[in-house]
Write a structure and sequence with these properties.
Number of helices of chain B: 10
Largest interface: A-B, 16 and 23 residues
Helix content of chain A: over 70%
Number of strands of chain B: 10
Number of domains of chain A: 1
Shape of chain A: elongated
Oligomer: heterodimer
CATH topology of the largest domain in chain B: Rossmann fold
Distance between the termini of chain A: 34 Å
Distance between the termini of chain B: 34 Å
Strand content of chain A: under 5%
Number of domains of chain B: 2
Strand content of chain B: 15-25%
CATH architecture of the largest domain in chain B: 3-Layer(aba) Sandwich
Largest sheet of chain B: 6 strands, mixed
Strand order of the largest sheet of chain B: 6-7-8-3-9-10
Number of strands of chain A: 0
Radius of gyration of chain B: 18 Å
Radius of gyration of chain A: 21 Å
Structural class of chain A: mainly alpha
Bound molecules: adenosine-5'-triphosphate, magnesium ion
Largest sheet of chain A: none
Chain lengths: ~250, ~250
């Protein structure tokens, strides 16, 4: 029963968030601010993870496809597909669910328990809209950008691994990553990312917005935000893959 | 004017407000007094709709607030200012931005006008050279004063103050009290102030309502409060040695 309560309240919140803003210009400014807070400040961790992820995927693929019938460029090809289709959109979104989700939930939760949200409501501001909508929009803009960067860096990581360890000759790796490239894969990855961004920002916003009590409960809210947005990301990953690829 | 009709509120089956009926008059400073935990904050939050009452009605100048949907309420809220017990300043914004916030949101003032309004409001609460500080860099009393400045920035028609001077030294407390009562008279607004400070009561209490364990126990003026025969009220008023020496009969 508790689950239905939360789901119902979540959709009511989303409906409130999507109400027409009182001042579009203020929302626009918030969106830019949040793009910096939520996106650019995650660039470092995204870059590091992507390079290493790409390197590991390349080395592992090389070890697992050691078969005379498989052309050696298949390693580059497999690396590219894995990174574009799955690792960049999903793994990076999960990382962001942790980093951005906890940030959103604790920021909004703190505002709730210190009555700052009440203060907004009292002024006649749509507090949910003002606080959460810019974060959702900012995430939906900036996360795809991060994922594209992650794709490049992941593939670059694979190239570096090939260069250092020599598991694949570089020319074969490059041939592989260019082999039968389909634009649709990128669209698929970006559509997933945008949906995940919405989930992460709105679910975390939900847990923050309905936090109750004090600092301890804000901590709980932010843990829940990370756990549930990760679960929903995984769940929707399956659903979207089924819809978009099959 | 704000009228409250037979208001009830309970939390987890524990009644906190019991059948409160009361009117807060326009152009006067209406005080709600009572001991800690008597329900003052809950009453104020019911008035502004942050807490939903279980039963009863609230009228803002004959507009039935309790029956309104959230869009209509939002329209009324643009006419009210509130000072929270814990100040509730926006942490991420500077003092200046805090006061600018409602102005940016709801007015079409030019930049210069807004700047002037901010300086005016900060002057009124006797704060200078704090424009660019963050709330975390202010003392408790300064936060309160910034919160008042923010509440009066958009010239509210209804002003709610939850313990405006708790945590302030006596001269500053009196300054804040005087400020609230001056603004009330000057702009002819309806002001409700929660307090348990007797100095405030004697200083600005045009109309005083005493809440005792969630019930409305006594109403009157600051002059009447010293001569009431109500036992619980006297217990509240004459709790200190100082008050007893002023009126040895009690
Ligand atoms: N959200 C809530 N949930 C449960 N109980 C509450 C809630 N808010 C207030 N109460 C209870 O209502 C009673 C009145 O609280 P309230 O905050 O109105 O007191 P107060 O008169 O403002 O006291 P103080 O002078 O200390 O601020 C208290 O017993 C408190 O425990
Ligand atoms: Mg209180």
């Amino acid at each position: 029963m508790k689950l239905f309560y939360h789901i119902g309240r979540y959709f009511i919140l989303v409906w409130i968030i999507l109400q027409k803003p009182e001042r579009a210009s203020i929302y626009r400014r918030q969106i830019v601010l949040e793009m910096d807070n939520l996106g650019l400040q995650s660039l470092g961790i995204v870059a590091i993870i992507s390079v290493f992820m790409g390197a590991v995927v390349t080395i592992q693929t090389a070890f697992n496809t050691d078969h005379p019938l498989l052309p050696i460029y298949a390693i580059g090809f497999a690396t590219r597909q894995a990174i574009i289709l799955e690792f960049s959109p999903t793994v990076i979104s999960l990382i962001l669910a942790g980093k951005v989700g906890s940030r959103i939930a604790s920021e909004i939760g703190t505002m709730r328990v210190t009555e700052q949200i009440d203060a907004l409501e009292i002024m006649g501001v749509n507090a949910a809209g003002y606080l959460i909508l810019p974060k959702i929009i900012a995430s939906m803009i900036i996360n795809p950008a991060l994922v594209v960067i992650s794709m490049f860096l992941g593939i670059f990581g694979g190239w570096v691994a090939s260069a250092i360890t020599g598991v694949v000759p570089l020319s074969n790796y490059v041939y592989g990553i260019l082999f039968e490239f389909s634009q649709y894969d990128i669209y698929y990855a970006l559509i997933k990312t945008v949906v995940f961004a919405f989930i992460i920002a709105s679910v975390s916003g939900y847990f923050g917005f309905y936090a109750k009590g004090g600092a301890l409960q804000v901590g709980h809210a932010s843990t829940k935000a990370v756990v549930f947005s990760s679960i929903y990301v995984i769940l929707f990953n399956l659903v979207l893959t089924q819809i978009l690829l099959v | 004017m704000i009228r409250v009709n037979h208001l009830w509120k309970e939390f987890n089956r524990k009644p906190v407000l019991k059948d409160i009926s009361l009117a807060f008059e326009k152009g006067k400073t209406n005080l709600v007094i009572g001991q800690s935990g008597s329900g003052k904050t809950v009453l104020m939050k019911c008035l502004v709709g942050l807490v939903e009452a279980d039963r009863g009605n609230i009228y803002y100048d004959d507009r039935d607030f309790s029956a309104m949907g959230f869009k209509e309420r939002r329209a009324i809220r643009k006419e009210l200012g509130m000072l929270f017990q814990g100040a509730a300043l926006f942490d991420s914004l500077t003092v200046e931005e805090n006061i600018l916030f409602p102005l940016n949101m709801f007015t079409t003032m030019t930049k210069g006008e807004k700047q002037k309004r901010v300086s005016f409001c900060l002057d009124r609460v006797d704060l200078h050279n704090v424009h660019h500080l963050l709330p975390a860099e202010l003392s408790g009393g300064m936060k309160k004063r910034v919160a008042i400045a923010r509440a009066i920035a958009i010239k509210p028609k209804y002003l709610f103050c939850d313990e405006p001077n708790s945590g302030l030294d006596p001269p500053t407390a009196i300054l804040i009290d005087k400020l609230i009562s001056e603004i009330t008279a000057e702009f002819n607004i309806t002001t409700v102030v929660n307090t348990h400070d007797l100095n405030s009561v004697m200083e600005i209490g045009d109309c005083v309502a005493f809440i005792y364990k969630g019930e409305l126990w006594w109403t009157g003026t600051r002059h009447e409060i010293l001569h009431s025969s109500n036992k619980e009220l006297n217990h509240f008023v004459y709790a200190t040695e100082l008050m007893r020496t002023l009126n040895p009969g009690k």
